[in-house]
Amino acid sequence: MRVHVGSGFEQVTLEGELDLNEFIDLKKLVLNGQLVSELKISHCLELESLVINSTDLLSEVDISNNSHLYYLDCTDNEQLASPIGQLEIRISSLEGLLDKTREEFIVYKLKVKERKLENFAQKLGVNREKIRNLCKYYQKLIREQSRKSFDSNVVMSMEDEIEKIKDELLNGG
Question: What 3-state DSSP class applies to 31?
Fold first, then answer.
């Protein structure tokens, strides 16, 4: 979706609050020389690029929900031009992407292991229900361990359940 203000059209000056939260598919936003004092973009979850130049009335922009944001330029603003602020924004955006990528990798890795286990179980002729239970416990274990602060008691409990199922399978299951 593209919204064009100015550049080939009658020049329009925006003043006061600019609420773009209804534009949920907005990917790029450029504000040049506007009199915007408040910018609302927290529901623009697809926003990738944000440029705010010569918009000195704007002193703060909340981009904590904009995890796709990879480019931010507000160097031509007295209020927003802090390099540390830009660095913090980029770091938080990258952290969001890293968490998402880490989770996607774990899910992929888990599916590959499940397929291998299914094939192996089929060759051995073991109880498929026990294999599914084993897979469920491994999924829970991996999810718990991928959390930043996981509960070691929960992990130990899951590991015990996994060992019980393995014992059952090896002892005639």
Answer: strand
Q: Rounded to an integer, what distance in angstroms lies between the CA atom of residue 48 and that of residue 73?
A: 12
Distance CA 24, CA 1 (A): 9
> Do the Cβ atoms of 67 and 47 come closer than 8 Å?
no
- How far apart are the C-alpha atoms of 30 and 132, rounded to whole Å? 51
Nearest CA-CA partner of 92 in 69, 114, 119: 69
Geometric angle at alpha carbon 89, from 83 and 91, rounded to 5°: 100
Tokens 């925006």 -> residue: 14
pTM of the full structure: 0.44
pLDDT, tens digit only, all 173 positions of the chain: 344 454 454 567 778 888 999 998 999 988 888 888 888 988 898 988 888 877 777 777 878 778 788 787 777 776 665 544 555 555 666 666 676 677 777 788 888 887 887 787 777 777 778 878 888 888 888 887 777 777 888 888 888 888 888 888 777 65
H or E element at residue 53: strand 49-53
